[in-house]
What does this fold into?
Amino acid sequence: MQPRREIHGINAAHLARKTRLYLNFGATRATLHALIDTVRADSINCKCVLFQSLTWGKIMLPSIIRRSRLIFFYKRMAAMPDYLFWKLKGSPRPRVPHLIKQRTLREYAKRFQLPVLIETGTQFGQMIDAMEKDFREIYSIELDDANYALAVKNFAGHARIHLLHGDSAVELPKLLQSVSERCLFWLDGHSDKTPIMEELRAVFTHGSYKHAILIDDANCFGSSQFYPTMDAVRELTAQLWPEAVVEVRDNIIRIHPS
Ligand SMILES: C[S@@+](CC[C@H](N)C(=O)[O-])C[C@H]1O[C@@H](n2cnc3c(N)ncnc32)[C@H](O)[C@@H]1O
It folds into this structure.
């Protein structure tokens, strides 16, 4: 008979079954990791109560609201607690809270005087929502039909926000044909693979504009056959924009004029 594997008193197979179930409900891997971390950290005595309340509060509830417009309010309200919780846990890396990403975008917009933001990967519109007051125009490209439809509903009537539907490898070069000023790029449209090399090629060859580029989730680079390595990103930059600075901080790749 197979030995029963337990994680702090919780049957591992049971946890795995639940995890798969919640993933089918659309829970993000981040919420699952948060759940597992908290379950691990807690004592055996309250594991059942904790498990049930967490699955409802951290997984089921978000998976219901992420299909409705409430997700925009939820994301806005959750940003500060998420940051404080991360700080309390000792700022574990590589993941950084959305609030740090927002601060980074503001810092670069100010430093390089960039009035236009171009994002790939709209998802729930959290970055658009946070940046609306900081940019004159915002463009965002989303591949997923449901995310795009929800964003269109949510930002209807926001004349300075332009939502585009499709693969950013295709849509970004098209969009750039009508852009004639320096921009800040937030390249964050990815899933188990990434269109980043096509996106970078499009930005680097966009006239002689010296844009600033921020790319999220540096830890993914080189992590699978579907993500280029950091060396490949540096090589492409050296080839098409040799004077640019390439650096990584807070899990964000930053490519900008020196
Ligand atoms: C990490 S989320 C983006 C989060 C968002 N930028 C923010 O800061 O709040 C990634 C999003 O990229 C989208 N995506 C994945 N591949 C894409 C592609 N090739 N083109 C455009 N969007 C893509 C996914 O559907 C998902 O909504």
